[in-house]
Amino acid sequence: MIKRLIALISALALIASPVQAASKKPTPTPTAKASAQATAKPSVKATPKPSVSKKPSASKKPVVKKKAVVKKKKKRKKIPVSPSPKAAWPPLNFKANGEVYAKIPTAKELIGTASNSKILTAQLAQKVDGVAICEKYSCGAVQVASLNGCTWWEVTGKIVGATSPDDKTLKIFGTIRTTARETAPMQITTILLISQELLMQNHAVANIKANCHHDAAIEKIPSTTYAVNSN
Known about the structure:
CATH class of the domain at 95-228: Mainly Beta
Strand order of the largest sheet: 1-2-5-8
CATH architecture of the domain at 95-228: Sandwich
Order of helices and strands: HEEHHEEHEEEEEE
Largest sheet: 4 strands, antiparallel
Shape: elongated
């Protein structure tokens, strides 16, 4: 009985096996061709190495050309120049003789005039034996002007002084003649008269006369001559 049961079980097992095989569809063997849906093999992801990130280089700023600054010229205010006041006419303290005006300046006035006259300064700066000319010789001066102007001037003067230390009688020792350049109408000019008489003798220039010429000069201008009085 037991043997029949075992045999029956074995027979059933043999019969059931082909049935299962028939019910199962044959599984297709995988082809070697890779399909698009093939399961990708897990790729070993490379561990990302810490990359040294380059610092963003400072981008060069475009060079901006500076516009040339055009300086505006400041307009200078025009300062009105007032014309020099005209000299008072007739000149103060001058003596008139027709169109000619003349005055004997004081020593102070002569120094003041010389400071503004290169010609007069040069004349006074002349030296004789290392001494200023008018500190060695007797000198005189006259300021002259003419209403109409002059082409040249002629000035004469007498050198006078005591006859001797004991005789105080005035005596004429010589005559000075000086010529000067042209002057414009109402222009004041100072003319220096230089003698050859020593100043220590206390002689003076007197009797000064000024002559305004309107004709052309035929001699050297300016000039000075001194003539000793023979008497």
